[in-house]
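Appendix B, record 7
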Amino acid sequence: MPIVRVEMWTGRTPAQKAELARVITEAMVTIAHTTPEATIVMFEDIPKENWAVGGILSSQPADKI
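Structure tokens (predicted):
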């Protein structure tokens, strides 16, 4: 049973997540030869203040870098 974990910034709508779950599941079925019923997609919303790229918090304003 494949489990696909999607981590992204907070703010996506339920409709966006539903569409992502649908297309990710379709890709797993097509490429990994699994079934939709066996495919789990998990979403984790992460606030920008808990995410850093290149040592800089994503919530930090660009003019403060």
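Remarks on this record: The helical segments are 14-32. The chain has one domain: 3-64.
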